[in-house]
Write a structure and sequence with these properties.
Blueprint (H helix, E strand, L loop, with lengths): L2 H25 L27 H7 L17 E5 L3 E6 L4 E13 L2 E9 L7 E8 L14 E2 L3 E3 L6 E9 L4 E10 L4 E10 L5 E11 L15 E6 L3 E5 L1 H5 L4 E5 L2 E5 L3 E6 L5 E8 L5 E6 L3 E3 L4 E12 L2 H7 L13 H18 L2 H15 L1 H16 L1 H11 L3 H15 L8 H4 L1 H14 L23 H16 L6 H18 L4 H30 L1
Length: about 550
């Protein structure tokens, strides 16, 4: 069995995977739900304090979202711009909501280097914002994301000599309670520390909890049929590890659980935003859909009580950026799983590691893929050799198979019996070339996910016209070369005895050329190099066996 038949097996496996994904999207089982829905109560302090807020407080706050553009109107709110080495960010003083975040190091496209990728936005077409606030029984003493804060300036910038930039927003109640919402930006990372600092200057105790939530609109599509990518909610918990919550799951309230050492996120292709609570602190994760159709995924803390003259803080991390596995691993356990390799993660992870090591040496992802392909080919050299030897022996039998065809005509049953007898006499296993090639299918699918999910390949150039290995070849040169290589491989193989099969095999290069035309060029590059190496190996083995037969 040669690579042409491998393509058939690969296509069936790949299409089956796509059908399974589509079925899961429409009819698949929902993520498991933990039955605990009650927030953790703070132990009694022995003083007359307000009752800790319950879930109804969260429900009352979450649906009320500032309208698009409301930040510049009424209520005294204004926009605060923040510039660092990783962000161009806009924070609305109404609630301290992050309403716009552009990633400085990630342009929108290769031909638009000055236009930075906009991950968070209030635009209706890609609405995605990060909200946070405090909740308590006394609404006039707990600033939600509707409360208007004050800022010392309209813009903050991290200077070249600075490693840390603090952006403080201040809120005061009428009776002397002060809440400082502090964003701590650090050089070289897309993680931002978010703090709520409560100072009780009033004459009575304060009790409340902090909530953080991500709100976004559901996208109309998630890529083409050959490049499906997930957009939606995700969480991590020690009990169930990585789980995804689709927009319908959030709308149905299926996320409603207590978690320690986890996180919540909204993810999409290459990028994500996530809230990461402190380790060891119990949080309550929740999800919902708002009346305006947008989805919310969030987390809130246990209640804290702050006595008069005392202070307390709520701390955590918000990540807004690309799916760089090294950075994600350093922020929280399991956050790197948002680079979703599916069920073949045990193959894909090592593949990514090898690719990363090669890239560190050569500095070009195109050459990295070529070198990786050579390594894969060497790893499967003996399996491929077994397959090609089987095919060469089958090719040697072509004249005898044709003679059997002429003898038995349309009597296919007798012809098959005669062929099997011939194979038995010549000690040829007609499936001997098939099984070794089947081993390569999981590696192809795993590499597909690696090249599809790795943000490092986004806008990564190779040579000449290939300036982005994560998208299709703009001139379809690589798919055409791959189609030609498939045709050449067919010529090295024995023709099928059945005329209909022969016609189908002739059509395969055209079919796969069209299909691969929509694949990421990095993946097509892998198959072009793999085919060329396979042709060379198969040609050498076939010639040796044919010369041995003549001798």
């Amino acid at each position: 069995m040669d690579n042409v038949r491998l393509f058939l097996f690969m296509a069936l496996a790949f299409l089956g995977m796509l059908l399974y994904q589509a079925w899961q999207t429409d009819y698949g089982p929902s993520s498991r739900q933990t039955t605990s829905t009650q927030p953790v109560q703070t132990p009694a302090t022995g003083v007359d304090t307000p009752v800790a807020p319950d879930r109804a407080d969260i429900d009352a706050a979450a649906p009320s979202v500032p309208a698009v553009g409301a930040a510049t109107e009424g209520g005294g709110s204004r926009l605060v711009k923040v510039h660092t080495d990783t962000f161009d960010m806009v924070i609305d003083t109404r609630g301290g909501t992050i309403i716009d975040a552009r990633l400085v190091k990630y342009p929108v496209a290769v031909d638009k280097p000055d236009e930075k990728y906009r991950l968070l936005s209030q635009r209706p077409t890609d609405f995605f914002i990060a909200q946070s606030g405090l909740l308590g029984a006394e609404t006039d003493r707990t600033p939600t994301h509707e409360a208007v804060f004050n800022a010392a300036a309209d813009s903050f910038e991290m200077k070249d000599t600075d490693d840390v930039l603090n952006v403080d927003l201040l809120w005061r109640s009428a009776d002397g309670l002060t809440v400082t919402k502090r964003f701590v930006f650090r050089r070289g990372t897309h993680a931002v520390e978010l703090q709520h600092l409560v100072e009780n200057g009033s004459d009575k105790a304060w009790s409340g909890r902090e909530y953080r939530q991500l709100q976004r609109g559901e996208p109309e599509s998630s890529g083409n049929a050959f490049m499906y990518t997930y957009t939606g909610g995700a969480i991590f918990s020690q009990a169930d590890k990585y789980q995804k919550y689709k927009f319908d799951d959030l709308a149905a309230g299926k996320l409603d659980r207590d978690v320690i050492d986890g996180w919540v996120a909204m993810i999409q292709h290459y990028f994500l935003a996530a809230y990461v609570p402190p380790r060891g602190e119990q949080q309550h994760f929740y999800g919902k859909r708002l009346p305006n159709g947008r989805a919310v995924i969030g987390t809130y803390t246990p209640a804290k009580t702050v006595e008069p003259g005392a202070s307390a803080s709520f701390v955590g991390t918000i990540f807004v950026g690309p799916k760089l596995q090294g950075e994600l691993e350093s922020i929280a356990e399991g956050l790197d799983l948002t680079v979703d390799y599916g069920w073949l993660v045990f193959i894909a992870k090592p593949m990514y590691w090898v690719l990363e090591q090669i890239q560190a040496l050569v500095g070009n992802w195109g050459w990295t893929i070529i070198i990786f392909t050579i390594l894969i080919k060497l790893a499967f050299f003996k399996l491929s050799e077994t397959s090609y030897r089987s095919m060469a022996n089958m090719r040697k039998m072509t004249p005898r198979i044709q003679a059997l065809k002429d003898r038995y005509g349309d009597d296919k049953q007798r012809m098959q019996q005669a062929m099997m007898e011939m194979y038995k006499t010549e000690k040829i296993n007609p499936l001997g070339g098939c099984l070794p090639m089947l081993v390569q299918i999981p590696f192809f699918i795993a590499l597909y996910w690696v090249l599809l999910e790795s943000v490092e390949l986004r806008q990564a150039p190779w040579i000449l016209w290939i300036d982005d290995l994560s998208i299709k070849d703009p001139f379809f040169v690589l798919p055409l070369i791959m189609g030609v290589s498939m045709f050449v491989q067919q010529k090295l193989n024995p023709p099928p005895p059945d005329p209909m099969q022969a016609k189908i095999m002739l059509a395969l290069p055209v079919v796969f050329t069209v299909m691969f035309a929509f694949f990421p060029s990095g993946l097509v590059l892998y198959w072009v190099v793999n085919n060329l190496l396979s042709i060379t190996q198969q040609w050498v083995i076939t010639k040796r066996i044919e010369q041995g037969a003549k001798a």
